[in-house]
Every structure is written in structure tokens, then in C-alpha cells.
# Entry
Amino acid sequence: MSSSRVLVLNSGSSSVKYQLLDMADSSRLAVGLVERIGEETSRLKHTPLTGDGAERERTGPIADHEAALKAVAAELAADGLGLDSPELAAIGHRVVHGGKHFTEPTVVDDAVLAEIERLIPVAPLHNPANLTGIRTARALRPDLPQVAVFDTAFHTTMPEAAARYAIDVETADQHRVRRYGFHGTSHAYVSRTTAELLGKAPEDVNVIVLHLGNGASASAVRGGRCVDTSMGLTPLEGLVMGTRSGDLDPAVIFHLARVGGLSIDEIDTLLNKKSGLIGLCGDNDMREIRRRIDEGDEQARLAFDIYIHRLKKYIGAYYAVLGRVDAIAFTAGVGENAAPVRAAAVAGLEELGLAVDGELNSVRSDEPRLISPEYARGKVAVVPTDEELEIAAQTYALVGRH
# Structure
């Protein structure tokens, strides 16, 4: 394929993140962000990674996603990287929810759009914005392949025993209630990169991936295929997160409604935006929590301990699911940068063959690396995630096949 560039778009409700990559060598040509779309104070930050690489910023009202993408196109054109370039092979779109139907990256047509739209009830915050980005990009370049890459796709290999909730089957099927999982592009990239780090093929490696950012999820990956993951129908299930509760007794919801008098919307807001670390100690930034712990703050210490306790439970559970664990990989903002989290999560797991070398763990690097001692049976890795590269690679591979 002579055209080797892929534009990756991640369209949120009021923002568009983008990267332009050249898949001939996986290099980045430009990155940027449009935020506060629809407000008077909209802002576009654009950084070309060719030439002098100086960041450009423009502020002022950007009415909608169409205006945002046109502004992005203008910035790219100013660097000679415009959307009309013959070098542009495709546009890859992050789509949060693909349900059971979309198990792989998919070239977008009207039927695909309709199915993504049908999934809005299970992803009301994300899929509408993802759809808007796709439709806008199609209007700007109707001749160009648009590819949807789904956060849920990597997890569609989960067996039914892991994907189903133990509720009435007919009710579950009628309302699409099952465990879908999220952060799939990150889990796919990190599990594969971890295998490379070990010098093995993905199909020969069992990995527990811990994607720890403000949103957090774990996955058990056997031979390159996900067999379990911590997020479920929505991104609320699983680990303690920045503002989300993760696992809790479902009856807590009934209790808050009946005894506390909270509405469904208030409970939704509580569990998604006012829980997790911010609910426990008032901070969702792990750096600030660690600073408070160093100053003797007991509330911050308890929040950290609850976070680690849940994380350790999932490591143990996924060890049992996999039977053999070749590596645990930490990734995303907290996983890549918070050495105390990595050390605490693995502490006491020596009987499982897991350990962290204190000196290796303290080193900061943007490169994938092992932080376990030589003698450890199971390796512990830090693998910076690269969801945009993964989306671009999947997009380019699909367009190449077509």
C-alpha cells in the first residue's frame, strides 16, 4: 500500500484527541487535542512532530465536532499533512462499545453505524460522541476508509463462564446484560509487548495486564487471548479507580434508594464520579495521595490500602484463572509511574513466584522493562501503553487486507 498514514481520532462528548501516524515506520507526525467543544472557551492544541515541533494553540468558540475536525484538518494542512493528502490511507476511530457483534476492527458503513447506535443504551456517555466523530470524518472524506476499533473487541474471546452474570438468561439476553470489558486496545498492545519483552510469541505467554489510570482494569490473557477482565457491562465494575467504586454489593444501590432516599441518577453519579479514591480521601491523583501518606495522613493511607487490597485480589484471582502466569504487566498513568503501587501490589506474593526488585522499580523510563529480580519465576513488567499506535496498526492492517 503506497499510502501509509493513518489519522487516529478519539471523539469524546466535548473533545477530540488525535494523532497522525506513518505506519511505514510507526512514527508520529502530529498530535493534538480539541477541548471544550460547544463553548466560548474552546481550545485546540496542536503539535507537529516534524520540523521544529513547536506546539500551537488557538482559543475561541468551536461550535461542534464538524467545526473541530475542520480546525484539526487546517492545522494538519499548515504542516503539509492535510486530510486531502494522497499519503493518508485511512482514519481510525476509537469506539468504546462494540457489544458482542464487533470482535475485530471494522470498516464503517451505514450498517456498522446503525449497530453502534443500537449500543448507545449500554454506553450512553461514549458511543454517541464516537458516532459523531465518525459521521463528521465521513462527511469530510467520504472516499477514505473509516475504521472503527472497539475497546470491547479484545475481550470478546472471554468464555461464557467469564462473560455471563448469574442472572435470568432471558432477561440478560433481552437487555444485552453481560460482561464486555473495556480498555481493550491497551490490553491487546500491552499483552503483546510483554510477550516481546520476554522474547516469546504471544501465543506462548500468559499475562495479567493491570491498566491503572484514573479508570482502571485488569485482564487475564492466555496465549494472546483475553479469558477474563475486571470491567463488566460498564466501566464501573472491578478495581478501585480514581472516581469509580469498582466492585460492590449490588444491594448497596437498593439500600441507598430505600434508606438514603437517593434517586437512580444520584446513585449513578455517586458511584461513577464521587467514589473510588476521591470518595475515600478527597483526592484521585496518586501522587497527591502518596504525598499525604508521607505526611502521616491516615485517610490517604486507608484509601491507598483499599486500592491495593482490591488490586491484589484480582492478581490472585487471575493467577487462579490462568493456572500459570509468565508475567504481570503494569501500564497507564499510575501503573507506569507509581513505583509504590507496583511494589505494594506484588508484596507478599513470593509464593506465587512474583517479586519486584526495589532498585529496578524505582527507575523511571518510557521504555518497556522488567522490574523483577532474575530469580523470580514470574516476571513483573512496566509497559507504557500506546492505544493510538494500536488503533493505527489495526486500522492499517485492515485497510491493507481490503
Summary: The longest strand covers residues 27-35. The chain has a mean pLDDT of 93. Residues 298-322 form the longest helix (25 residues).
